[in-house]
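Re-run with default settings, no changes from the original entry. Doing this only to confirm the output is reproducible before filing.
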Amino acid sequence: MIKLFFLLVFSFCSTVSAQTGFKLKVYGEVAQPLELSLSDLSKMARGEAVMKDKEGNSHTFTGVPITEILGKAGVPSGKALHGKENFSKYVLIKCSDGYQVLFSLAELDPSIQDKNVIIADTIDGKPLLADKGPLRIIAEGEKKPARSSYQATEIVIGSIK
């Protein structure tokens, strides 16, 4: 029984420690590569997105709009995005389990489309569970949640050549 207790405590502390040292990396075709800690993200503008789970229950996720992170990295937006060079750019989200999802940069730009995509750290006011976080990308309004991935670790900006 005591061994089980210490195993649980060790597991919890390892999860907290891993999340404490966590950094979301933003790199590629950016003016300013970033490594954002959870503390850094908590100080940025916040947004909400609602998504249903497999049972059809709605949940409110809170986090940083991806446009805020892209702006901090100096990724073109608005009028600076227009033109053939920037319209071929993409945003690749990499997750710790190897899963990757892709967005065109243009579909995330508010001057072109009203798409609400956030890098969430809470669900219904509580931190994401360890197996879902510490960060999850939420693409609100999509018919299937395939791009709302768990354990996001990197944001890569690239372009089709």
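Residues 3-18 have pLDDT under 50 and may be disordered. Residues 2-20 form the longest helix (19 residues).
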